[in-house]
Each structure stands twice: as C-alpha cells, then as structure tokens.
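for the recovery benchmark. tokens below, seq after
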C-alpha cells in the first residue's frame, strides 16, 4: 500500500516536496488556487526577507492563528458521541411531546460527557462531577437534557454559580489549582454555603471517580414539567441508568491513571464504540403531582435535593444507545451547544431558581464561545426537522429567507408569506398560577441542608463510607486555613457523627468543632437513597 512516499523530490535546501498526480489531489488555497510550493515562503532572494504578496503563506498562517475558540467557561473538557433514543413506553398520558408518544420510534441523539472544573487539556479522572448532556433531535425541534452524573447540585440559586465556579477554578493570580485537589477557596465557599453540603458528600464519594463514561448514571437534576394534550401538568425528574451498571475507580487508581493516561475516559469510549460495543442507558422518569410536591419534606424546586426512588419509583420509558463516534471532534463535540431552554411542546420549566438562571446562561455564553447567533447553522446544532423563521444575517448566516417575506404579519399569501404560527401544534407555556410580591427571599422550604446528605451517607456500604471519609480527609488536608477545616467538619457532624470524627482525626484536629445551628431540623429515618448500587473497583 502507498505510504505517500511517491513523487518525492528534494528542494535546493534538502526539503521534501511531494507531488500530486493519479489519485492524489492538488493542494490548493482556501480560494482553490493550486499551490506549487508549500515548503518555502516567497522571498526577495533566497536569503532575503519574506514578501507580503505571498498570499498562500499569509492565508496558511492567518488560518492557523485563528484555530482556537474560547473553551467552555465550565465543562471545558468533554467527549461526545452520536446515537439514538428509542421510546419503549408511551408517555402520551402525561405529555404531548411527540418524541414520547410511540414506542419503537427512534430519534437521533448526541451526547457530550465532561468534567466541570478542569480546562480543555486537563485529565479525565479528576475527582469531579461529570456532565451528561443529551441532545435529542426530535420532529418538534431539539430537546436538550443538560444533566450531570450526580442528581443534586451545589447551589440553589443561579446567582451563586459564578461564585462556586470561581472558588473551584484556578485562582486568577497563579492559575492553579486544577480540579485534582481541593484548596482553601473551594472549601471556604462550601463551608460557608450549607446548601452545598449534600452535593459535597456525593462529590467525595466514588461517584466522582467513574470507571468510564459507560458506567455512569445521568440526571436532569431539576424538576421539570410534562404537559399532556389536555393541558394537565405533572412534575418530572429525568434519569439515565447505564445498562452496564455503575462502576468507579478508587482515588489511588485515579491518580495513577491520570499520570499514565490522561485520556483514559475518551479512549475508553472511542474504543468501545469503534469495536461495536455500544453503551446504552435507560431513560427513566419520576412523575409526581402537586399533592406529592406539597407533602414532600423538601421543596421540589430545590436542585440540592432529590426525590427518593422509594417514594416515587423511576418509570423506564426509553433507551439511549451511542453507536457512532464523531468524524470531526471540533465541528461536533467542541461546537455542540446544549441549552436547558431547548425544550419541545409537552415539556416545560418549573420555578427552580437554578434552572431559570441556566436558561439565560447557556445561550449567552454560546454566542461568545461560538462567535455568532447563527451557531444553530452548524450541523451538530441544527434541528433535523424542518425549520423556518424570520431570522437573517449575522456572522456566517446560511439560511436567509429567500423568495418569501422576512417579517410578519404580511399580506403575501401562500409560500410567499413565509412560515405562520400554529396555535395547536406550537409550544405553549403551561399557565402556572404565579402570585407573589417581588422579593429576593429564599423559600424557607429550601432550608434543610443536612437530611439528604445524611441519607446519602448512610445508604453507602462501609467500604464506600470509608472512601468518603478518606476523600474528605485528603481534600481538607490541602486546606491551609484551620478555621475552614473546622467549619467543614462542623457541617459533617450533622451528616454523621462517625464521619465527622474520622475526618477530624484524619486532619489531626484536637477536638470536634461546634456544629453550626441548622436552619431546619435534621430529619432521620428517611428511606435509603436511590439507585446506590455498590461501586466496585
Ligand atoms: C455547561 C450541567 C448549572 C452554566 C454545562 C454542561 C453541562 C452542564 C453538562 C456541558 C455542556 C456541554 O457538554 O457542552 C449543569 C448542571 C447544572 C448546571 C446539571 C445544575 C443542575 C449551571 C448553572 C449555570 C451553568 C447554574 C449558570 C447560571 C453553564 C455554562 C456552560 C455550562 C455557561 C458552558 C456552556 C457552553 O459553553 O456550551 N453545564 N450545569 N450551569 N453550564 Fe451548566
């Protein structure tokens, strides 16, 4: 077989020239002009200065200079794959969403897994939350479930997102630390934000060190709404359950793997899919109504809480299979733009203040990251159903209205008038009753920060509990400020006394610090946490 060494000629300086011919196409500029010499710039004499008129040289360098775009402000390191979603159980009773009507029907899907804190070039096995972002290309437009592999979140209100992220990302003066180990700022923030304690438990657990993307759960985290054809709404939580179960590595392994193969997770997904070993997840929904929401000990609008599966079982309704790697990492995985506000008729938002903020943030950041409001023209972001609107122009616009109106209402009939509204098929917002004075107050119901953390810890096996103790001890041992260590251990007293004691001893504290007064009483005797399969190495 050809290895590309035909037609080799040496130039005057000994450089290699490879000629076109036969099946080998001619090298051209971006404008299509054939290139005679790609090894030498145009100079005034063999030893003279490079000439400005060398348009091939200038185009080549100019293009290279502009290869990078900003990495995502969070979740910068990720890896994506194509696949499909197939409905297995109709949800027509609870939603009018077309994609959830007919069992057996498939729609294309794209999924991007990610770490949160590390930069694009960081390592795969950081102790971190994993993003689990799913784009379903439905007949009614793109529906994105932009979730994580942990069912709860650090904060209750999106206004705190820049703070939690600043605290965990590299500091602006020194540009470290990365996500590998804890530092004062992150634990300072967590210890001053009791709402983060539940998520901190999950992040110190084996869940934060997945063996592979293929062995992770995914969660939509927020409570969303499903709305049926009659206009009746139910609350819903989305779950992705891996067919192969949950697996994690231990910290010791993670450290070694990061050193030996920082691309461990992406290599695993690439190899699995390329060898026909297609990972699969079950989509499950937890459905509940206003009565359940009112009777629940926690506010269903609080993203730091989950709904125990013992109280509301997860109903399996579909499967997600990843069966094709991307052809072009940049065009697809890097430029894909997930957004919580991408929903379809039959799905709706709730007043979760974290979700409401996310709905603003993603579109905003993507216009900067991808450079133009026309990022939906990039094939990975474009709907795979017909779409027509009155948008035009802007950077890289590809779909300007042609031969029809570009505004409405208009007097032009038929196709010339352009697309029209459809009150029956179109998205309508669920008319939830809202009635309240404007306020920045947080609901008192958001105030129990320890009960579910305790429930999670107690649901773990002894081995898993020891891993959590060790993770807290290791991470807090990197914190230099004694008061922050003590404050954090103080929170752990509310979670579990033995956990707090083990961490305090591991950190060499003289005694257990005082536990802060909880805003609401810590509940005991809750059902065990959901789907906590044993994590094996
Ligand atoms: C990116 C999940 C909260 C802002 C992402 C991604 C995921 C994710 C999976 C990566 C998307 C991709 O692969 O392209 C979550 C979850 C959250 C959460 C599950 C809480 C439940 C927030 C909040 C904000 C936010 C509260 C801001 C108010 C962003 C931004 C990006 C991002 C700006 C980068 C998007 C891009 O450049 O494409 N998030 N996030 N996230 N998230 Fe979140």
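predicted aa per position
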């Amino acid at each position: 077989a050809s290895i590309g060494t035909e037609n080799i000629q040496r130039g005057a300086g000994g450089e290699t020239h490879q000629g076109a011919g036969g099946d080998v196409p001619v090298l051209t500029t971006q404008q299509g002009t054939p290139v005679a010499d790609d090894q030498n710039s145009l100079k005034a004499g063999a030893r003279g200065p490079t000439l400005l008129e060398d348009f091939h040289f200038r185009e080549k360098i100019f293009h290279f200079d502009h290869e990078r775009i900003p990495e995502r402000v969070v979740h910068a390191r990720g890896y994506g794959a194509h696949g499909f979603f197939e409905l297995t159980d109709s949800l027509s009773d609870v939603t009018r969403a077309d994609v959830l009507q007919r069992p057996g029907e498939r729609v294309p899907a794209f999924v991007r897994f990610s770490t949160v804190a590390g930069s694009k070039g960081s390592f795969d096995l950081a102790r971190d939350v994993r993003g689990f972002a799913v784009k379903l290309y439905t007949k009614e437009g793109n529906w994105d479930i932009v979730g994580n592999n942990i069912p709860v979140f650090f904060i209750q209100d999106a206004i705190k997102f820049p703070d939690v992220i600043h605290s965990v990302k590299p500091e602006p003066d020194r540009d470290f630390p990365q996500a590998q180990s804890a530092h004062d700022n992150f634990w300072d923030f967590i210890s001053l934000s009791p709402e983060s304690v539940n998520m901190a438990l999950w992040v110190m657990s084996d869940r934060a060190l997945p063996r592979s993307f293929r062995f992770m759960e995914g969660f939509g985290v927020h409570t969303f709404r499903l709305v049926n054809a009659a206009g009746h709404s139910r609350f819903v939580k989305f779950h992705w359950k891996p067919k192969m179960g949950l697996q994690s590595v231990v910290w010791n392994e993670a450290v070694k793997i990061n050193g030996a193969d920082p691309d461990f997770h992406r290599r695993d997904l690439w190899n699995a899919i390329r060898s026909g070993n297609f990972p699969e997840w079950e989509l499950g929904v937890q459905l509940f109504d206003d009565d359940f929401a009112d009777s629940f000990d926690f506010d269903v609008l609080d993203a730091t809480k989950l709904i125990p599966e013992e109280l509301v079982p997860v109903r399996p309704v579909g499967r997600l299979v990843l069966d094709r790697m991307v052809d072009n990492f940049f065009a697809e995985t890097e430029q894909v733009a997930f957004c919580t506000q991408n929903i379809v008729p039959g799905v709706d938002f709730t007043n979760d203040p974290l979700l409401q903020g996310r709905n603003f943030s993603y579109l905003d950041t993507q216009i900067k990251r991808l450079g133009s409001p026309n990022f939906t023209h990039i094939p990975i972001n474009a709907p795979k159903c017909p779409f027509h609107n009155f948008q035009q122009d802007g950077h890289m616009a590809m779909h300007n209205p042609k031969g029809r109106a570009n505004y409405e209402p208009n007097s032009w009939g038929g196709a010339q008038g352009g697309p029209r509204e459809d009150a029956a098929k179109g998205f309508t917002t669920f008319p939830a009753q809202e009635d309240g004075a404007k306020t920045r107050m947080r609901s008192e119901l958001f105030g129990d920060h320890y009960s579910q953390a305790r429930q999670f810890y107690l649901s773990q096996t002894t081995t898993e509990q020891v891993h959590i103790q060790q993770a807290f001890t290791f991470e807090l041992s990197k914190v230099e400020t004694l008061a922050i260590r003590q404050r954090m251990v103080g929170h752990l007293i509310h979670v579990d006394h033995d956990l707090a004691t083990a961490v305090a001893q591991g950190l060499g504290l003289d005694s257990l610090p005082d536990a802060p007064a909880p805003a609401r009483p810590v509940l005991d005797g809750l059902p065990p946490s959901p789907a906590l399969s044993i994590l094996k190495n």
